[in-house]
Design goal:
Radius of gyration: 27 Å
Number of helices: 20
Distance between the termini: 34 Å
Helix content: 25-40%
């Protein structure tokens, strides 16, 4: 009898995430990537790690401090996880340092320099000095630390210089101080064409001007990471909070969880920092490269060196949206599906803008999770409300790191007369839906847009997502009910064709997995998502595999399922695609379900399936279902961007066999969309893949 609760069958969530970030940093080693593209992946890696420490490590530290030894099915305690995380990151530090140094060295041959102040010639030093006195010195913050000057509160992810100094008079006392570098200052100072210097090297050079009358004995750049209070209560920390809120939560607000410091830091200066920060030794990381590499975007975005990035793809508006007719006319005729970022996000914006202007439109309702700072969609909603239309917007104020931006738009919507909902107590609204009610021939008709991604025109150029437009009668009642649930009191209300979490989606998924399991070798499951964590789903997939069901999982990030275990998961293949764009769409295929294909806003994680309002949308249109299946087929056959997961939880870069056609799914879709755009075909676009091993019969 196989025990599906055995710890050996489950990869640890935190270590699985770290392996994802490893796949990101590996892209910076890829020689075929242009130099700034490689630098971009270092920036992404660093930003990812910042968030991981603020959320996941902070949560584990709280559990450990509260003496909680609760474990998941992987059987690792919080202390064991923290030890494993430290060991993993410490080992990877050398890879990051080597990659960065290698890229910076090669950039010199392209006349692009990322340097220190002391690397400059006399003329450039003069320019740097002028920049310091004009732009930095007036806003720099020197801080003495002694008996009468307490150690200051440091902002999360702030960059500072620790300073050891001595009174210039004979026998002067040794003192300690800090120089806080405000965030309004550039991390990398752009002096002239192709020359950037680190701001800390410029500040260090002028430390004696900041502390006149003192001799500077030593300095060290450092950066702190704190427990991000507002973040820790939401999003990825939900599972931690559930435990901590049971009376075990005893953390200090915004405790320091990580110290990054330059490697040449003097021992006494490091002791000064550690003493005042109260940081654990294993949470101290020393580097011989600049700190806060997430700020490299300034250099990466330098237009003078755009040729050192991958070619910029211009998303296209394809048939049938490329004609001079309203979106409502198109949707009266057919369903439409678009794929971002290969296809343009403009039709989504136009859908709301057309609704705002159309005199026949009575009502617009939509969920807003992450919107851009200058969102044309929210502006269209404001215009619609000003035009007297009924506008309802569910603005999720708990969207991680977008709280302030969402609040600004929410207030603007309210001022225009729109009805704004600020969330559901105890839950987060993550489902992506827009509903337009329009009068047509004395009847009310409902037009809908569903998405796997956010209503954000900026991320739509960076994330792969699916947009689905429809006026199908099958979704009419469900869309009305969904918004009634959000705006009113509706206990235990269920949808019919759409599936909603927290009450329906998981049960529906488990039922479809069970149906494939019952078909044995004739069963087939393909699922594309960001993360797979939910234990019940994993067990169901194991059982299906044991009955002969072939399962392909396209999972970008966390995967707690272990594939390839003899007798249990040898029919499961897990692949991760890491490339130019962030894989973000959620697509599910079940061979024996009706219909077979679904798109969703939800990953297969407890937080998505049990603690959020999410939607799973069946695709009834056979042409669009084929489009999704072709897309899945293309990604499973990708042999350029893909990584295969081993049964031990590690990943191996897929290497094409000799003479095998290279298939880069993201590049292929760019080229395919460009080709269709030039042809300007009037037929529905489907993803016709290159010669690949077909996965559908």
């Amino acid at each position: 009898m196989i025990d599906l609760n055995s710890p050996e069958l489950y990869a640890n969530r935190e270590l699985s995430w770290l392996r994802f970030n490893t796949r990101v940093i590996k892209q910076s080693q890829k020689e075929s990537n242009p130099l700034l593209e490689r630098l971009k992946f270092i920036a992404i890696y660093s930003t990812n790690l910042d968030e991981f420490y603020m959320i996941r490590v902070a949560g584990l530290q709280e559990l450990y401090s509260a003496r909680v030894n609760t474990t998941g099915l992987d059987n690792l305690t919080p202390r064991e996880q923290l030890d494993s995380i430290h060991e993993y990151i410490a080992d990877e530090k050398e890879v990051v340092e080597q990659n960065y140094s290698d890229i910076v060295t090669k950039l010199k041959s392209e006349d692009l320099f990322i340097q220190e102040y002391n690397d400059l010639n006399k003329s450039l030093k003069k320019d740097a000095d002028d920049f310091f006195y004009e732009n930095i010195f007036p806003v720099i913050i020197p801080i003495a630390v002694d008996a009468t000057h307490p150690f200051p509160p440091l902002n999360n992810l702030s960059l500072s210089l620790a300073v050891q100094l001595q009174d210039s008079s004979a026998g002067g006392e040794i003192k300690y101080a800090m120089i806080r570098i405000p965030r309004l200052l550039p991390r990398f100072v752009h002096l002239t064409d192709g020359i950037y210097i680190t701001i800390e090297s410029l500040v260090r050079e002028h430390a004696d001007d900041i502390f006149p009358g003192y001799e500077i004995l030593s300095t060290a750049t450092f950066r702190v990471t704190r427990n991000a209070d507002i973040v820790i209560e939401e999003e990825e920390a939900d599972d931690f909070m559930e435990i901590l809120e049971q009376g075990l939560r005893r953390r200090k607000k915004g405790a320091f969880v990580r110290l990054e410091v330059e490697e040449k830091c003097d021992v006494e200066l490091l002791d000064f920092l550690v003493t005042h920060l109260g940081i654990n030794e294993q949470d101290i990381y020393t580097f011989n490269i600049p700190l806060n590499l997430g700020a490299l975007w300034t250099v990466i975005a330098d237009k003078q060196f755009s040729h050192l990035n991958l070619p910029l793809h211009q998303p296209k508006v394809l048939p049938p949206f490329d004609q001079n007719e309203s979106i409502f006319q198109v949707l009266d005729r057919e369903d439409v599906m678009t794929m971002q970022p290969f296809e343009s996000f403009d039709p989504v914006v136009k859908f709301i803008q057309d609704a705002a202007k159309d005199p026949k439109v009575l009502s617009i309702r939509m969920t807003l999770y992450r919107v851009g700072k200058n969102s044309p969609i929210v502006q269209a909603l404001i215009d619609a409300a000003n035009n007297g239309k009924q506008v309802t917007a569910m603005v999720e104020l708990k969207a991680r790191f977008d709280e302030e931006n969402n609040l600004i738009w929410a207030k603007a919507l309210e001022e225009s007369g729109a009805h704004v909902i600020y969330g559901i107590p105890g839950f987060k609204v993550h489902g992506k839906i827009a509903q337009v009610i329009r009068k047509s021939e004395d009847k009310l008709k409902i037009y809908l847009h569903f998405s796997t991604g956010n209503y954000n025109e900026t991320t739509a150029k960076l994330y792969t997502d699916i947009s689905y437009f429809t006026s199908r009668a099958e979704f009419r009642a469900d869309s009305i009910t969904f918004f009634h649930i959000l705006t009113g009191f509706s206990k235990n209300k269920m949808l019919n064709n759409l599936k909603m979490s927290p009450h329906q989606m998981k049960a529906s998924l488990l039922e479809m997995i069970k149906k494939e399991r019952e078909k044995g070798a004739d069963g087939r499951i393909i699922a594309k998502m960001n993360s797979l964590v939910d234990t019940d789903i994993i067990k169901a997939l194991y059982k299906a595999s044991m009955e002969g069901v072939k399962i392909d999982l396209l999972i970008r990030g966390i995967c707690c399922l272990r594939p390839g275990i003899k007798g249990i998961s040898e029919n499961i293949h897990v692949r991760s695609i890491i490339g130019k764009y962030l894989e973000h769409s959620r697509i599910f295929y079940f061979k024996n379900a009706s219909p077979q294909t679904y798109i969703s806003s939800a990953d297969w994680m407890p937080r998505n399936l049990e603690k959020r309002f999410e939607l799973m949308v069946p695709i009834y249109d056979t042409t669009l279902s084929l489009k999704l299946k072709d897309y899945l087929n293309l990604q499973i056959n990708d042999n350029v961007l893909s990584w295969d997961m081993n049964s031990d939880g590690n990943y191996k870069k897929f290497k094409p066999e000799k003479n095998m056609q290279e298939i880069n799914s993201q590049a292929y879709l760019e080229q395919y969309v460009n080709k269709i755009y030039k042809v300007n075909s009037k037929t529905t676009v489907s993803v016709r893949t290159p010669k690949t091993k077909k996965i559908f019969k």
